[in-house]
Amino acid sequence: MSVQNLEINKANLLNVVVSLPKNEFEQFVSDARKLKRREESLLAKIPKFDLSDEEKAVYKVLLRKFRAENISEAEHKQMMNLTDKLEGLNVERLECLMEIAKIRNKTLREVMKELNIKPKSYE
């Protein structure tokens, strides 16, 4: 039976791994640790990809003013700067999540559900 046809579960994986020659076993363990460290590093970054509490509060006020069509030119410029920053942070956040999904061999949606991460809303 090839490894591809083998149902992957903890017991099967452990049996396959322990049967590896010593050098392959050590390389496997080293690679697994690197992947785990990378995933942990990415997970630690995710909360940082957000506006500060002060920026969120300002953004909400500006967004309400914008929707009410009661925003000055300076406020509009400030809102656009915060929007640009927020979009950049969201891109970085999604890149981290996509890399985690790749490491876990899952879809982005599956990873977001597992981590209970929802799209950001500042309304």
Please summarize what this structure is.
By secondary structure, the chain is mostly helical. The chain is built from 5 helices and no strands.
List keywords for this structure.
mainly alpha; 123 residues; 5 helices; 71% helix; single chain
By DSSP (H or I, 4+ residues per run), the number of helices equals 5
Number of strands: 0
Give the ordered list of helices and strands.
HHHHH
Beta-strand level of the residues, as a percent range? under 5%
Radius of gyration: 22 Å
Secondary structure: elements and pairs:
Blueprint: H1 10-18, H2 22-45, H3 53-67, H4 73-104, H5 108-114
Helix pairs in contact: 2-4, 3-4, 4-5
Description of the structure:
The structure is a single chain. The chain has 123 residues and is mainly alpha-helical. The protein is elongated and about 70 Å long. It has 5 helices and no strands.
